[in-house]
Design goal:
single chain; about 150 residues; alpha+beta; Aminopeptidase; seven-stranded mixed β-sheet; 3 helices; about 30% helix
């Protein structure tokens, strides 16, 4: 079971910020072999949902209010460390993120830009694919709405 912590950017301490950036880099840059600018200037506007196993950040998302990223509220940078993916933390962090969107923004409509291979995972959480598939950083994606 994860310990979930929800914080604004200014509430993050340096250890937490370092752990978030390290996890995102491990998965999105190294594991997925994708060269892109992860530190994109949007973290300051986001609310950060951290999943801790002990002292380690093993799952993470960032959420945005409607209009800050998409027209709708959104969840992005969904990541679970490779070593804990079989533990169900993806579902836990997403459910916590959906709840955080409701709690922080009073929103129930959420848009995500999902990697296509995770379509079944996001569908199981109530998201529906909308629009056409597109490439983002060389990886097939699809927009989804809940």
């Amino acid at each position: 079971m994860l310990t979930i912590v929800v914080k604004t950017f200014s509430e993050l301490n340096t250890q937490e910020l370092y752990a978030i950036l390290q996890l995102r880099s491990e998965v999105f840059v190294v594991e997925q072999d994708c060269v892109y600018q992860d530190v994109d200037g949007k973290d300051q506007k986001a609310i950060h949902v951290l999943g801790f196993k002990g002292d380690d950040v093993v799952a993470y998302t960032r959420i945005f209010k409607a209009g800050d990223y998409f027209k709708e509220a959104s969840i992005g940078r969904v990541v679970v460390s490779q070593k804990t993916r079989k533990d169900g933390y993806g579902v836990e962090i997403m459910k916590a993120s959906i709840q955080a969107v409701k709690d922080c923004y009073n929103e129930t409509t959420i848009r995500i830009s999902a990697q296509k291979y995770l379509l079944k995972f996001y569908t199981s959480l109530g998201f529906t694919a909308v629009g056409n598939e597109y490439l983002e950083d060389g990886i097939p994606h699809i927009n989804m709405i809940k």
